[in-house]
Every structure is written in structure tokens, then in C-alpha cells.
Amino acid sequence: MMGTGRRASAAIDKGEGRGRRCFADAKRLGRGGRWRVLLVAALLTGCGSTGPTDDPVSRSLGWFSYLNGDDLRAACRPGAPETYRMVFNGVFVEQLRSYDLAVQPDGGGTLRAWARTAADISEVELGDLLRPWRGTSATTDLDAGAVDAIRAALTESGAFAPAPRGLRLPSDSFYWIVNACRDGEFSFNAFLFPSPRFEVLTFPAALLDRDRTGVPYNVPRGPEDPPYGSRSFPPYGEEYEDSRASSRFVLQVGENGLIGLLRLF
Fold first, then answer.
1. In a domain, 17, yes or no
2. How many CB atoms lie within 10 A of CB 110?
3. How far, in whole angstroms, is CA 119 from its chain's centroid?
4. Based on the number of CB atoms within 10 Å of its own CB, is 125 exposed (0-12), middle (13-18) or buried (19 or more)?
5. Which of 34, 147, 223, 238 has its Cα between 20 and 30 A from that of 207?
């Protein structure tokens, strides 16, 4: 058993950054007893993102890979389609939003928006037990003018500038992540609230104007303001704080992507 573990670790270490991150995440979850072996195995096999999905289980296992744009990164080469992914973390337990934009040869594009707020178990249905965690998605066809507007807003926001290496992204904070494949080159950036870089962002408004999910944006706020959504955590007290603390993790930005999960749970 130990030999197998060493071989698995060595094989992953020989891979790209995604493999190393997935193995590190799994080891953190695996501490505390052999009963977690199946969970670790699930993370190792499921943590690679294949793109946007409505399956909450696949999305959860591949979330860090999705944030890092691993699927876009792997497909980005000369001649590859122009693609963008913008992800908003509006305090992890309160709201997540993502926007995948695929640009078409005619200059138009397809925007797939997804939003998830805190799960409301009253929405459970017999035919779809995972509905409260599924979130809401909407796909919109954009003309060339709309794509140009989003692209210009990303440029104006500094999304294609070098990423702030060393920046830490706590899950219980507000931040945007941008992945892009343009002219066969992949780029990554992140913007943490509050900061001067976050304050000048214009692309969120360009995305929200074309968002058809119907889920209100969790506007970034200070610590003195109440949490998003009265239905999510009615008392805004111990239940909310416990949920926020139990799901806390911190990501760190590298030169052109996420380089590690600093703390999980």
C-alpha cells in the first residue's frame, strides 16, 4: 500500500501544476483517518475541470481547477478559439458566479452565465435532490458589438496585465478571477476587494448587463454590513458564522495562475 502511494505521488509530481495541486488538496482532506480514502480518491480523479457544468458534485470536485482555467489553458494554442472565463467569489457560502464566453468566427459569441447562492433545502425535489446546490444558469447569444464591449471592459480593467503574484484570496472575501485565451496565449488575473485594482473594474457591469440568470449580484461590502440574502442566513448570527468558518480556504496567485491552496477548512 505504501509503495503504491509513493508511485502515485511521484506520477503526479511529474505532471503539470494542476496534478500537484489536486494531490495536495487530497492529502489535506485525507488527514485524520483511513476512512477518508474514498474521498481522497474522488478528489484526485475529479479535480480536473472540463468546463462549465450544471452537476454540483462535478463542479465542487473540479472547482479549483475551474478557477485556474485548467481546461482553457490546456486547449489554448495558436489557432485556438478566443475564450474567456470570469468567476466571482462573493463570499463562498453566500454567492458564486461564473461567465464563460466563447467567441465565434463572425465576432459574435455565446455567454454562459451561472450563479449559486446559499442552498435552500426547501427547494429539494424528489426528482432532483441536488437542486438547492445546482444553481441557476443561462446561455445568451451575443452579437459582435456585445463581445467587443466585454473585451474592451476587460482590457480597461487590466485583466490582461500581469497577475499580482503572491496575492491571497480568502474564500470568505470578494474577488474576481479572469482566465483568457487570446491569439493562442493564455492569461490569468485576480482582483481582490477592497483594493484600488478592484475599484476600477468595469467588466463586471458589462457581464451583469448580459446576465439572464435573474440572480441579484452580491455587491461587495464591508464587514459591518449584513450578509447577502435574508433567506440564506435569517438570523445573521451563529448559523451564518459557523457556515462561513467551516468552508473557509485561501488560494494564492502565482505568475499566471493559482499556485496553491494555503488552507482548507
1. no
2. 14
3. 17
4. exposed
5. 223
Q: Tell me: the pLDDT tens digits for 6-17?
A: 332 322 233 334
Q: Could you give the CA distance from residue 249 to residue 103 in angstroms, rounded to a whole number?
A: 33
pLDDT in tens, 64-94: 889 999 999 999 999 999 999 999 999 988 9
* pLDDT at residue 42 tops 70: no
Burial of 264 (C-beta count, 10 Å sphere; 0-12/13-18/19+): middle
Range of the domain at 173: 80-220+246-264
CA distance 98 to 220: 16
Are 120 and 137 contacting, i.e. CB atoms less than 8 angstroms apart?
Answer: no
- Residue 143 falls within a domain, yes or no? yes
SS3 label, residue 172: coil
- Does this model's pTM top 0.70? My answer is yes
Residues 169, 20, 187: CA angle, nearest 5 degrees: 55
**252 lies in a domain?**
yes
Amino acid identity of residue 137, one-letter, is: S
Neighbour tally for 151: CB within 10 Å: 21
Is 50 part of a structural domain of the chain? Answer: no
Listed residue (197, 108, 119, 186) closest to 149, CA to CA: 108
The tally of domains found in the chain comes to: 1
